[in-house]
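stage 2 :: seqdesign
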C-alpha cells in the first residue's frame, strides 16, 4: 500500500497547488509548505470542524472531490481530498515552521 499511498499523496499535492493558485493566486513555495495531516481522532476533530464551517467543495464527479477551508489570518488553509470514494487524504498549506494546528 505504500507505493499507492505515495502516488495519491503526489496527486493530492498537485491538486492542492492548483486550487491554491486558482483561488488565492498564490504559488506554494517558501515560506509556504504543504503538510499532509494525520487521521487520528484529535486532529481529525479540529480539521473536521473547520471543513464543516468554512469548506467550499470542488468536485469532478465521480472521481475527485476536494473541500477547501480557507485559512484565517494565522491559520492554515485546509484541504480534504477524496478519490473515487475509496481513498481520502487531508492536507494544509501553511507558513513553514515548527508550529501547526495539530
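stage 2 :: out
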Amino acid at each position: 500500500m505504500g507505493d499507492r499511498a505515495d502516488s495519491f499523496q503526489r496527486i493530492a499535492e498537485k491538486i492542492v497547488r492548483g486550487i491554491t493558485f486558482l483561488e488565492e493566486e498564490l504559488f506554494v513555495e517558501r515560506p509556504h509548505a504543504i503538510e499532509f495531516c494525520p487521521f487520528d481522532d484529535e486532529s481529525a476533530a479540529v480539521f473536521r470542524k473547520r471543513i464543516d464551517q468554512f469548506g467550499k467543495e470542488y468536485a469532478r464527479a465521480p472521481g475527485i472531490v476536494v473541500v477547501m477551508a480557507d485559512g484565517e489570518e494565522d491559520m492554515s488553509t485546509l484541504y480534504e481530498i477524496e478519490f473515487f470514494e475509496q481513498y481520502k487524504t487531508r492536507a494544509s498549506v501553511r507558513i513553514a515552521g515548527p508550529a501547526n494546528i495539530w
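stage 3 :: structure notes
- Residues 9 and 101 are 20 Å apart (CA to CA).
- The chain has one domain: 2-95.
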